[in-house]
Amino acid sequence: IKSIAVLTSGGDAPGMNAAIRAVVRTSIFYEKRVFGVRRGYDGLIEGDMEELNTKSVKNILNLGGTFLKSARSEEFRTDEGQQKAYEQLQKHEIDALVVIGGNGTFTGAHRFYEKFGVPVVGIPGTIDNDLFGTDYTLGFDTATNTVVDCIDKIRDTASSHNRLFFVEVMGRDAGFIAMNTAVATGALDVILPEENKTFDDLFGEIERGASRRKTSNIVVVAEGNKLGNSFEIAEKVKAHFPQLDTKVTILGHLQRGGAPSCFDRVTASKLGLAAVEGLLNGRADVMVGIVDSELTYTFLQQAVMNKAQLDPEMLRISKILAI
Ligand code: F6P
């Protein structure tokens, strides 16, 4: 391998810049050329890339977002799109790829590897923490700290007015953000995509809270839950308990921004370095991750096909401690 390209794809996540920096500097350390591709796979298809040097990535370690920009590419899902991307790699004499992103990013990367045999290594970057083969994805730590900060503030006002707040957090298919932040903020209840919670269950929890004369109540709602969006849930709860003063806050995209936490920066640095060293040691079609504090490489297909599982212990903790 003489030349490596790096791109970020899918939803951005704090820590992506730190990972790009690690990929660039590790490549240069091993005397390889390194290219930054803008706008994910769309940029790859269009040849929107430039060679980077150590200075190109100075002062980005601490920045949220991704300086390479990101996109969810429709065209890369097609044979023509993949062919164009391959031609661009040939044109720029790039012989390996590091892709930073989540599920969709790795699905595309795996197909690309199968078709053209270009060695590709993935770095897990998504605030959702929903990838099999790693305990952490870049951005999760920062995003959950942001959520905790917000919920703490909401609790101040909830308490002053004896209100019940439904706080909706991101997580289209996974409840990791919701689960962790519910425990970290002492939420009365959490509504997760992974569970089949009913309205009766929820009403029961709220009644328990009321019977203990709690002055403020927070229910954390994961975006992808099966009961409905947080406004619908709040409305049903209000219909059942008309005396309750209910409010809804949707935290939305603010969860994706902000300076990466120390943990995300360190993890990004480890994974970026390991991605390049993996490529140079002959790894391909894998995602680099951290499992039980050890660096691991998981085949992309496995990372994509298996579902990351919520820790049942976290659910137990949240239930017991919310009494
Ligand atoms: O995958 C990360 C994520 O933030 C999800 O939690 C959320 O459902 C989705 O991206 C939102 O995507 P977009 O920014 O494209 O609206």
Automatic annotation (TrEMBL):
Any GO molecular function: identical protein binding
Catalyzed reactions per annotation: beta-D-fructose 6-phosphate + ATP = beta-D-fructose 1,6-bisphosphate + ADP + H(+)
Enzyme Commission number, as recorded: 2.7.1.11
Keywords on record: Allosteric enzyme, ATP-binding, Cytoplasm, Glycolysis, Kinase, Magnesium, Metal-binding, Nucleotide-binding, Transferase
Binding site for Mg(2+): N103
Pfam family of the protein (one): PFK
Residues engaged in binding ADP: R21, A22, V23, V24, R25, R155, R212, K214, T215, S216
Residue stretches making up the Phosphofructokinase domain: 4-278
InterPro entries found in the cross-reference section: ATP_PFK, ATP_PFK_prok-type, PFKA_ATP_prok, Phosphofructokinase_CS, Phosphofructokinase_dom, PKF_sf
SUPFAM superfamilies in alphabetical order: Phosphofructokinase (SSF53784)
Enzyme kind, highest EC tier: transferase
Keyword Kinase: yes
Listed pathway(s): Carbohydrate degradation; glycolysis; D-glyceraldehyde 3-phosphate and glycerone phosphate from D-glucose: step 3/4
Family: Belongs to the phosphofructokinase type A (PFKA) family. ATP-dependent PFK group I subfamily. Prokaryotic clade 'B1' sub-subfamily.
Role description: Catalyzes the phosphorylation of D-fructose 6-phosphate to fructose 1,6-bisphosphate by ATP, the first committing step of glycolysis.
Name of the protein in question: ATP-dependent 6-phosphofructokinase
Species of the source: Phaeocystidibacter luteus
